[in-house]
Amino acid sequence: MNKFIKAAVLSVAAAALVLPTFGTAQAGDNDDAWAAGAVGLVTGTLIGGAIASQPRYYHEPAYIDPEPEYYEPRPVYRARPVYRRVVVENYGLEPWTPAWYRYCSQRYRSFDPESGTFIGYDGRSHFCTAG
C-alpha cells in the first residue's frame, strides 16, 4: 500500500509538471491536452514505480565483540628430577636375588621388578630394601 501511495504522488507530480507546459495556443485543441496528460501520467507512474521499488538496505546495528586481549602465559616451572645414588642397606637379603624379588613382590603391590622400586604413600619411587 505504501508503494502505491508513493507511485500515485509521483505520478501526480509528473503530471503537474507536464500540464503547465502547454501554452495558450494549444488550449483550443482539447484532445492533444488530454493525450499529453495521459502520457505524463503514465510516465510518472512508471518512473514513480521504479523509484518506489528500489530495495532498501537497512542494517540493524550489530554488536561486534572486540578482539580478545592476549595475555602472555606465565612460564611454568617444573621441578627437575633429582637422581640420587641409591644406598641399599643390607637387611639380610641381597638385592636382585630370587628371595629378594619374592619378598618385595609380596610386601609391596606396586613393586616394579625391572627397576626394583615401589611407589610409596608419598607418591615417590623407593628402592625395595628387604629384610
Automatic annotation (TrEMBL):
Main location: membrane
Compartments, record wording: Membrane
Bilayer-spanning residue ranges: 33-52
Protein family: Belongs to the BA14k family.
Function recorded in the entry: Has immunoglobulin-binding and hemagglutination properties, and can bind to mannose. Essential for virulence. May be involved in LPS biosynthesis or polysaccharide transport.
Pfam family membership, one: BA14K
Membrane topology, as annotated: Single-pass membrane protein
Signal peptide extent: 1-27
Family matches, as InterPro entries: BA14K (IPR012413)
Taxon lineage: Bacteria, Pseudomonadati, Pseudomonadota, Alphaproteobacteria, Hyphomicrobiales
Any GO MF annotation of the entry: carbohydrate binding
UniProt protein name: Lectin-like protein BA14k
Gene Ontology, cellular component aspect: membrane
Keyword Electron transport: no
